[in-house]
Design goal:
The chain has helices spanning 12-19, 33-46, 56-64, 121-136, 195-204, 214-220, 229-232, 274-285, 330-336, 387-400, 405-413, 422-429, 435-440, 451-459; strands spanning 24-27, 68-73, 85-95, 101-112, 140-143, 157-168, 182-186, 235-240, 246-255, 262-271, 290-298, 314-327, 343-350, 358-364, 370-373, 416-421, 445-446. It is α+β, with helices and mostly antiparallel strands. The chain folds into 3 domains: 5-138, Gcn5-related N-acetyltransferase (GNAT) (Aminopeptidase), CATH 3.40.630; 163-324, Gcn5-related N-acetyltransferase (GNAT) (Aminopeptidase); 331-459, 2-Layer Sandwich (Nonspecific Lipid-transfer Protein, Chain A). The longest helix is centred in the first third of the chain and has 16 residues, at 121-136.
Length: 471
């Protein structure tokens, strides 16, 4: 999905809804630096950050030049060049189980000035983003959220978690295998050429990760403001495999007070291979003169505790709903991922905003690939699944779940189905939660016997979804 994100016209419904409140909803031309700077000021204010100054402002300008940037303006305020609300968005890939990249629409910088809150401005912006995502051909919209109570009403739901992992240095005795390659200290800037390719491979093998844009790599490597204290404190490690090929990198800081051991803190560990992941973790946890290691935005499924003699050296805290997904095109989304089991499953999806509502038949074969059939426009109830695909999926399903006689015949006549809301679809989509857990919570409904068990097996992901950046 590569195209100029500003080529899609401004959403007319949001324009009209905000005009009715005396507000002007505008798509900003990044070449108009005065307008862009006003927007950047509003974004910083909205997130309670300090006023931006160079080189941070130059960085923001460069990042926003690649995005679709909207502001909402109120001529009645004393500084009308600063919008009273902001949002930015861009097309980006989302890794899904099986290693493919799904066309997604990232939404960020959602702010509304406290002087204009609770007048429906965020609603107008968020609904416009969904309409734009759909027009752009995205299968899902996605975001990371400051608060967990804002976005469910627009159909978003948590799809991949992140946690803080802490390791007690005194108890961190490594018992994992030796990696065949080597870890080297490198200057962060020297990683700039290798980071995109390593990150691409690390992202591809982790459902829930999104494509890295150039600016985020600069930020990870402390290159936005290299002379700042934070950048100068940054250390970088690179893992080269036994052939000398770079396969992973990490950046970290050691925070410390005079004469006291510090803490190793990191939020970047990008590994294209398991060897790289293990080797980088090892160097991070085996530093001397530190109390411990704190990894931010790590996976709920880190292998670390299995690599240390004392698994209790590792503690996990701050489990957060990190990636929020909103499905706008269920057929494209469901068809892109690979499934953990063969079978035929009907998803009856409810979506108050309409995008995903309908009955979708998922026919997964033993290799994990799936064909999705969505409702016919004439609404005759036939999902249109070709008989050949249906019988292939059913026989694979029957092989894995022994069934006989009447039950098998009944299943053959009527595919198993579950009913769920579009938010529940988002939560099960990457395999972050089992459909049966959502059924226990009274959210997903098993509409025919055996459907939940089948759904659990089909939606299982071989790798736990995880997103390791904010966007
Ligand atoms: C969150 C924020 C964007 C909401 O803007 P807003 O214009 O006041 O929101 P709206 O008036 O359009 O409200 C839309 C709905 O969301 C609800 N809502 C808005 N902010 C909410 C919050 N912080 N928590 C829970 N619900 C919230 C409203 O009650 C309303 O519900 P309803 O439509 O069901 O009645 C705004 O408070 C803000 O800028 N916060 C600081 C920055 C931030 O946290 N941004 C989110 C980035 S992920």
């Amino acid at each position: 999905m590569s195209f100029e994100p500003r080529s899609i016209p401004i959403d007319p419904d949001a324009k009209a809804a905000l005009a009715a409140k005396g507000l002007d909803y505008r798509l900003i031309d990044p070449a108009d630096l005065d307008a862009l700077d006003g927007w950047i000021d509003a974004d910083h204010r909205g997130f309670h950050h300090a006023r931006p100054r160079d080189p941070g402002r130059a960085y923001d300008r460069a990042v926003m030049a690649e995005r679709r940037v909207h502001g909402v303006y109120d001529d009645a305020v004393p500084e009308p060049r600063v919008p009273v609300a902001t949002v930015s968005s861009w097309p980006t890939g989302l890794s899904v189980p099986g290693g493919r990249s799904l066309d997604g629409w990232a939404v960020s910088s959602v702010t509304v000035s406290p002087t204009h809150r609770r007048r429906g401005i965020a609603r107008a912006l968020m609904e416009a983003e969904l309409a734009t995502a759909k027009r752009a051909g995205a299968a899902v919209a996605m975001l990371t959220a400051t608060e967990a109570t804002i976005y469910g009403r627009f159909g978003y739901a948590p799809a991949a978690k992140a946690v803080t992992v802490e390791v007690d240095r005194r108890r961190a005795h490594w018992v994992g295998p030796e990696a065949p390659g080597r870890v080297h200290y490198v200057e962060p800037a020297t990683l700039r050429d290798q980071a995109p390719a390593i990150s691409r491979r690390a992202v591809a093998r982790t459902p829930g990760e999104i494509d890295r844009w150039p600016g985020v790599l600069d930020r990870m490597l402390g290159l936005v403001d290299p002379d700042s204290d934070a950048s100068r404190a940054l250390r970088a490690l690179r893992y080269d495999d036994e052939h000398g090929q770079p396969q992973g990198f990490a950046t970290f800081r050691v925070t410390r007070e005079p004469n006291r051991p510090g803490w190793v803190e990191f939020d970047v560990l990008a590994a294209a291979t398991d060897d790289a992941e293990r080797a980088l973790w090892r160097v991070l946890v085996e530093q001397d003169f530190v109390t411990g290691v704190r990894g931010l935005l790590r996976s709920t499924d880190e292998p670390l505790e299995w690599l240390l003699e004392d698994p209790r050296a590792v503690t996990v805290s701050e489990v957060t709903d990190h990636l929020w997904v909103r499905v706008v095109d269920p057929a494209a989304a469901l068809g892109a991922r690979r499934y953990g089991a063969a079978g035929e499953l009907v998803l009856e999806i409810d979506d108050p905003l309409g995008y995903a509502a309908g009955r979708y038949t998922l026919l997964a074969s033993a290799d994990g690939r799936a064909v999705v059939h969505s409702p016919r426009p004439d609404g005759d109830g036939d999902d249109g699944a070709p008989k050949r695909e249906r019988s292939r999926a059913r026989s694979a399903d029957a092989e894995s779940v022994p069934s006989r006689g009447a039950r098998a015949a009944a299943r053959a006549a009527e595919p198993r189905s579950i009913r769920l809301d579009v938010r529940d679809l988002a939560s099960i989509y990457l395999g972050g939660v089992r459909p049966s857990v959502l059924a226990r919570a009274g959210r997903v409904v098993e509409a025919s016997p055996g459907a939940l068990q089948l759904a659990d097996r089909m939606f299982a992901s071989p790798r736990t979804p995880h997103l390791s950046i904010w966007f």
